[in-house]
Write a structure and sequence with these properties.
The chain has about 160 residues and is mainly beta. The chain has 3 helices and 11 strands; from the N terminus they run H-E-E-E-E-E-E-H-E-E-E-E-E-H.
């Protein structure tokens, strides 16, 4: 996540304690629309046994982790970053004189529009494969931070 954020010109911090469901806080330095230094929060899950369809990954997660992303009652927008990795940790990267390559890819999803779940141990969610994390798509996630209650959206 840090390498991707750095390539997008963003800054990353990590909470000292993981008690509120976010693994990283990603910030946009400077102005974005009418906001200064907007931020998003992300929960990162790695997954070495991916399954799903051509349209979406079908990821099973603990209900308590899902509830830390769902419902939309958060001050900062929250996202799941699902990183699909090789089963063998030694295959996570390949290195050459001119490249450090990470394998395989990361995807994002927002569950703010979904209701919290009660009484379940796990939830299966769809993570659209079109939501590939790139420097551009990562910067685009900051668009949702531009809507502040009680203020007009920038034109």
């Amino acid at each position: 996540m840090r390498a991707l954020a750095a390539s997008a010109g963003l800054v990353v911090s990590r909470p000292d304690l993981d008690v509120t469901g976010e693994d990283f806080i990603i910030g946009h330095p400077g102005m974005r629309g009418s906001l200064r230094h907007p931020r998003i929060e992300v929960q990162v899950k790695s997954w070495s046994t991916p399954n799903g369809s051509a349209a979406a990954w079908r990821y099973r997660m603990r209900a308590e982790h899902f509830n830390e992303l769902a419902g939309g009652a958060f001050y900062l927008p929250r996202y799941l970053f699902l990183v699909v990795v090789p089963a063998d940790a030694e295959q996570y990267t390949s290195v050459a004189d001119d490249a450090l390559r990470l394998h395989h890819a990361g995807y994002w999803a927002s569950f703010a529009h979904l209701s919290l779940v009660a009484g379940a141990r796990s939830v299966t969610v769809d993570v659209p494969r079109r939501n590939l994390l790139t420097p551009t798509t990562l910067r685009d996630l900051f668009r949702s931070t531009l809507a502040i209650p009680g203020q007009r959206n920038p034109s």
